[in-house]
């Protein structure tokens, strides 16, 4: 690691190793992250609120001994502004909560800080993690959306402002921005992490999510968030034996470039000796998209009870979501919950030998325009079944825009899924 | 309703009807609740923080028009001090959070206030809704525990200080104090309510709970919390066709008085023409008790990440819970989650025609001494399966202490369960 390279480009584990080996200091990495932010933030707009360079370096220097002895060595992280922080505002992308300052850190923030991460700032979220975009641009093309709702976290990691960031997903809020921005994205199984201090949208759907540029960094953060005893010790990369391929159209609109990308990954898998099946799943996935929408509307209208007092401060789509939720009958809501669980059970019993599902992480590359965040349908089926998902970057369209794919695992089988994602990552980058 | 009666004795719906009919005013009811609190609070100790009589009446008078037109007419409610309130401290029974003042109301608080309830105060909780008791006494015998963790809510409702109160349950925190104090208690199915702003202990276990003196009041509050269109309109009481009886010993220690009480309810059911079965469930229920404990320890140790920094300010049992959780292997945790779901499915497929399960709500009457809150085993099996439960009062032991029974429904079948509970309530009181 020479003094000339930009140390903000390193992944988290790579940076920790460099610090450990004395190749560079944590302060140099922090300084390079700020160089990058200062050069790019006016264009990218990833941050809602952040420390200044001086505040961040002061925080490091005032607690140098702690950071030096810590696991994460003072490495900077971004936190989606839907996640509470006691030392910075948490405004949830809404004027209703302008200047809101929580009294507690969310538990995920507590755990990262305790492991030695420095919260560099809060990243832009769409309004309450739903549709209305913030100011963030796609680092690959500033006229395109970064995707939502974890827009700022995806853009900050993709643009090498920070090595890792936290997000959350109720529909497609991690997987889609990771795909559009070309980062790794991970959504934990339902129930996997403590969601204390994360604004809920749908209690049957919400998951914590993580962004990084390498799968190994997700594994490290995950271990920290689960308070595992030896967070640096991850399992070997795992080649799946059998993968179920879903090229996209069975879920919804899919671009030809995305279908070609999925076929390219299929060819890599087959070449590596992985059995790939592409059964006709009938209407299951399309049905799950509908059930997801029903559950989300019903639950959001209860979770956002406070905010629905201020209709004039809500975007039209969010207002419509709440109205739809209030008009949804309890019977329809329960039917959707029941149907999603039934399809999940049938899927994994009918295809019992499948190790993972491969599908597009988004309908295509990031669409033009920053007034929308792209369509969420590619994530809805897995999210309503509570499954863990990893977005992998590496493929591009003709405009050199990222085309993200996703690997989906069985419920609560997150560790094995990440081992398989790490294996596939190495295939895609070689 | 003559001027001489104590208006605090009325149930919520009864009070609303009296106000509606001009038999008394909301202010008179509030005043009588304060008379009761002032007479009894020094002994019972239900409140952690509360409005003064003047503050409460001012709140009513300054918004008289709103309250008069509202559904709940300014009726006072108690809120367990694990649930965030923006206008009062929320200290969660721990010195770590002394004076903690959240920036937002929990969504359940928002919805009650919006419907016209006045939050009279915060009720005593055990430390983080676990074992260490607060100051509350059992109103039926001040030397006995009110049960925990929703100790203050149960005692305040039982002692007629307020008609209704909110609680929460991760193990037995609503069902047991309701049983010991002789109130109705209700725990919603997993996922039923928005838990925004309620301190989590175990994300796979936590439920919102309600206390009242009549089942109909639970139904009204539930409708408000679900934003139902016509909250006063509840279904007819429903006689179950078939009830599965669990007398207690298959779960754990059960007092002879409690077994006799359950037999008494069985006799009533049979007399009413209900089919009662009492099959041998083998080790299912005992196994569920163990699985519940494993999941609770694992998840609590992640949810209380912040608090585990302050071991000297934690009680010994809570510290031990966190240590147990950190020492629990992920495999064991996942096995417990899986086993609980498997038993749930087998139970309801093997006994498909059963409308409800009848069991003791606690091992017996409230034990002597206020240093412990009683054993939680009677609730663990249902809680780990995510089922809705109602505690019904009405039975007494030889010392005139309440013996609570519980009626358990299928997951998400809360409305039907409450209709059956209302039917059984009428049998027990006649």
Automatic annotation (TrEMBL), chains A, B:
Organism domain of life: Bacteria
PANTHER family documented for this protein: GLUTAMYL-TRNA(GLN) AMIDOTRANSFERASE SUBUNIT A, TRANSAMIDASE
Transmembrane parts of this sequence: none
Source organism: Marinobacterium maritimum
Domain annotation Amidase: ranges: 28-418
InterPro entries: Amidase (IPR000120), Amidase_dom (IPR023631), AS_sf (IPR036928)
Designated name of the protein: Amidase
One Pfam entry name: Amidase
